[in-house]
Fold this sequence. Notes:
Blueprint: E1 2-8, H1 9-17, E2 20-27, E3 31-36, E4 42-46, E5 56-59, E6 74-78, E7 81-84, E8 88-91, E9 96-98, H2 110-126, H3 141-162, H4 166-176, H5 186-198, H6 210-217, H7 225-234, H8 241-252, H9 255-266, H10 272-290
Parallel strand pairs: 1-8, 1-9, 4-5
Antiparallel strand pairs: 1-5, 2-3, 2-6, 3-4, 6-7, 7-8
Amino acid sequence: MEIAKSGDFSFIQQISDSKLSGYVHSTFNRTFNIHCLENGELYTIACREMDNGPNTLIIDVDRFDEMDIKVNDTVHFENKILSVENKIAITLEQVESWKPVLPIYPKDTEIIKTRLTKMKHYINILGKGGGMKKNKISRGPFDVEMSKMLNERTNLLLNALRNNEMSKALQHAVSLIGLGPGLTPSGDDFLVGLFTIFNIRNSPRFSHQSFCEDVVEKAKALTNDISYMALKKASVGKVRESIIRLVDSLFYGKEEELFFSLNQVINIGSSSGTDIALGLVSGLEANINQEGNYGSKSFN
């Protein structure tokens, strides 16, 4: 019996209160995903080194690749135990609940402007290329064209947001879905960061939060299931703990906390973390621009 260390509050409640069923959707070395038959959502079981996230349960193991968990294996949730056939059983008796709660937008935005400049400089130097950030290593014509498309479509989206042309912004945001390399495509990761900022209470863009859900309504057929679930959750402000920690440190933490948190996000996936961080930057610039004090520039 494996022990669940922490997990998303709503996921824990579902396992505790209901008899659910599903199957293994996808498997990786440090995570596997479950498709729940009752609600159609994906849930993630992650090893101890991963951070908390929406629909995620962290368990006290190092890896899953030696457990022989396979796609389509049957999954049961009952009596605070999650089991995958006879391969793994996870108890929630000692689990610590986690809720994805974003910080409130600060009244004084001067510190955001200062820290955004430093954050962009850090991403420019240490961010991982290959997605939203141009790769300095010489690549083939396909990668060059993909980078060009990501850059053009992102700047069209940001220009529409600066001009408060939300119908155009919706069109350009949708054009990013499924675009770019990676299990979660770069365009999707960028939108996860952007959606995060649109869901911050008291921010100028919070009034446009429904824009995020409008984008997701059109996303299902345009990207893969895992990326779609990340977009769906981010559209209502539910994102990974490391992303929340980065936003909180940018608003209220010390400068060294900001760079530590930024580095944690940048290290998500191959280029996913960098793409998310650039989405956060663009969302914050869109907020400050709406206040009439700050403009957004292309990050390429």
